[in-house]
Structure formats: structure tokens, C-alpha cells
């Protein structure tokens, strides 16, 4: 599987055809947003973890074409580390398209083995289950992460950059990519490498929701680690829009960055939030929040993405931050 070449002709974008789309991890941050934004554009089915059942029943009521207020019958409990559960779900749904939004994305988990169990081995479960099933899958999208670039990241990291991950999260994602490449002759797989993105509903262990929460609660100070390294903090709506367009394009068997090329430091983000809220907060550095092998700048080259997704919706960082304050999510 090769990185997408921006010099190739633009892949054709099709119209939504209400083919069956299975969102593995519909209860995830990105899964919830994608379903909410595009439930009327696709015939969506989803999987969720059993411990999310109550939240699913309270949040997602009717199928896209139904006015029933019953819990969505198109959502199935499924643990992707259990291959039999995956196979059972595939048999029930018979999807035309799959996006895997399930995974461990917080890069500071205490037990590193969880990354490999969920981000690597579980994806092998998905791949082998699809191959062993009778479904005729048109496209499978597997989100990886820009963290795979590691120490080779630069101000405009392109898909051709050699991955050199420096933590367990990045290694688990790169291993997933390698496993997917083994079966890419049998499946149409798009691997995405999203750079940082955020929005309401994201776990407040992540930096932007954490900061927003402190401002909403009128905290006087906040403990942080490195506030000068720069990252992209793209809008969840932009990311979901890209996934929609990738589903509808005839782009196939490619590795693709999801990025804008716009990077900010946490120091800059806090200043922006301060102006929006007309409030200030004292930053206290805590060694506990400093990461080993911190990448000073992680930003991507969106050239390939822009060649596939014409006129992508790019939200300004101020729009994204205001979304938090206009949302009922805490």
C-alpha cells in the first residue's frame, strides 16, 4: 500500500447511494459526530461497547428513515478484540462500507499493552473477519495517526515521509498499517493519518477539552506540561467531512493525511480562549504532564487530501473553540 500521489487525477466523488455503512465504534468521539452529521446521507449501522449501552439508548433513538423513538436497532454491542463478535456483526449487517472508529487514542495510557490489543490485534480481527465472510465490501477505512511520523515529523509532513514512531501509541498504529498492507490485494483499504483534532464530547484528558473545562469552571490556574510545542488542532466537523468524501470518492488502497497544515502551541490556544472568554488563567507547569520524546512540531501537508476532497471545509481555530462554549457538552 502506497501513499496517495497528489499528481494522479482527482478521484471521482460520487453521490450518496444509501449503501450500508458500518461504523465500528459508533460510541466513540468521532463515531458519534459522524453519525450525527451524516445519518441522513448513509444507511448507517454501528457497533458499541457494552458499557456504552445506556448512553447509546439515551443518545441515538431512531434509524435515519424512521420517526420511532426506540433505541436504534441498527446498533450492535461488539468488542473488536473478540473476533467472533465481529464476525457475528458482519453477518447481521452485511455492510458495503466500513469505517473503524474504535481504538485507543489517548497517548498516555499507563498500560502500553492496551494499544497493541485494541489498535493492532483487534484490527487484524476485523480484517480477517471481512476476508473470511461472504460480504462484498466496497471500501474499508482504517484511521491510523500522524503520530506514526514521530521524529521525522516536520512543518509540512507529507505521506511520503518515512514513519519513525517514538511511543507505543504510534508503534501500535504503524503495526496496524503494516498488517493492513498484507491484505490490501484482497480489500480496498484507505488508511488515514489524522493530525490532532478536537471538539465537544472529546474526553477531557485531551488537552483542548481540559483547558476549556478549566475556563468554563472559572478555575484560576491550570497544570500543564509542554505549552510551546506546536500541533494541529483541527475541527471534528472537518475530519468527519473528509471521511464522508473519502467514502464517496473512488480513491482506493491509499495512505492519506487528514490535516490542514495549521499548527498552534498551547500557549497560543490559551491566549485565544482568554480573548473569547475575556478571562485569564495562570499556567503552572507540572513535570507529570511532560512526555518523553515530545515532538516539537507536528503539522501536515494537505496537498494530497485537497486533490481528493475539493474545497474541504476548513474551520478556523476560533470557530472550533467557540463550538465548545456553544455546546451543552461539559
Automatic annotation (TrEMBL):
<feature type="domain" description="NAD(P)-binding">
    <location>
        <begin position="23"/>
        <end position="304"/>
    </location>
</feature>
<dbReference type="InterPro" id="IPR016040">
    <property type="entry name" value="NAD(P)-bd_dom"/>
</dbReference>
<dbReference type="Pfam" id="PF16363">
    <property type="entry name" value="GDP_Man_Dehyd"/>
</dbReference>
<protein>
    <submittedName>
        <fullName>Epimerase</fullName>
    </submittedName>
</protein>
<dbReference type="InterPro" id="IPR036291">
    <property type="entry name" value="NAD(P)-bd_dom_sf"/>
</dbReference>
Amino acid at each position: 500500500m502506497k501513499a496517495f500521489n497528489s499528481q494522479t487525477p482527482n478521484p471521482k466523488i460520487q453521490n450518496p447511494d444509501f449503501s450500508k455503512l458500518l461504523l465500528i465504534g459508533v460510541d466513540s468521539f468521532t463515531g458519534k459526530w459522524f453519525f450525527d452529521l451524516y445519518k441522513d446521507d448513509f444507511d448507517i449501522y454501528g457497533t458499541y461497547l457494552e458499557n456504552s449501552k445506556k448512553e447509546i439508548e439515551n443518545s441515538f433513538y431512531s434509524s435515519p428513515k424512521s420517526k420511532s423513538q426506540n433505541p436504534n436497532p441498527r446498533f450492535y454491542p461488539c468488542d473488536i478484540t473478540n473476533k467472533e463478535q465481529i464476525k457475528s456483526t458482519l453477518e447481521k449487517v452485511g455492510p458495503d462500507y466500513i469505517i473503524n472508529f474504535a481504538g485507543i487514542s489517548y497517548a498516555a495510557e499507563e498500560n502500553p499493552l492496551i494499544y497493541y490489543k485494541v489498535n493492532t490485534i483487534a484490527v487484524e480481527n476485523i480484517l480477517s473477519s471481512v476476508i473470511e465472510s461472504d460480504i462484498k465490501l466496497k471500501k474499508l477505512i482504517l484511521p491510523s495517526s500522524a503520530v506514526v511520523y514521530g521524529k521525522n515529523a516536520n512543518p509540512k509532513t507529507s505521506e511520503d515521509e518515512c514513519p519513525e514512531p517514538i511511543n507505543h501509541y504510534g508503534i501500535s498504529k504503524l503495526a496496524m498499517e503494516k498488517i493492513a498492507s498484507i491484505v490490501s490485494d484482497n480489500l480496498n483499504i484507505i488508511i488515514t493519518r489524522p493530525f490532532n483534532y478536537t471538539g465537544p464530547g472529546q474526553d477531557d484528558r485531551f488537552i483542548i477539552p481540559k483547558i476549556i473545562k478549566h475556563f468554563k469552571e472559572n478555575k484560576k490556574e491550570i497544570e500543564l506540561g509542554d505549552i510551546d510545542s506546536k500541533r494541529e488542532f483541527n475541527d471534528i466537523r472537518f475530519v468527519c467531512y473528509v471521511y464522508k468524501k473519502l467514502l464517496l470518492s473512488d480513491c482506493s488502497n491509499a495512505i492519506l493525511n487528514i490535516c490542514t497544515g495549521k499548527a498552534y502551541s498551547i500557549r497560543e490556544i490559551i491566549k485565544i480562549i482568554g480573548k473569547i472568554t475575556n478571562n485569564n488563567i495562570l499556567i503552572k507547569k507540572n513535570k507529570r504532564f511532560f512526555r518523553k520524546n515530545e515532538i516539537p512540531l507536528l503539522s501536515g501537508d494537505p496537498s494530497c487530501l485537497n486533490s481528493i476532497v475539493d474545497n474541504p471545509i476548513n474551520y478556523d481555530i476560533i470557530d472550533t473553540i467557540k463550538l465548545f462554549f456553544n455546546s451543552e457538552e461539559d
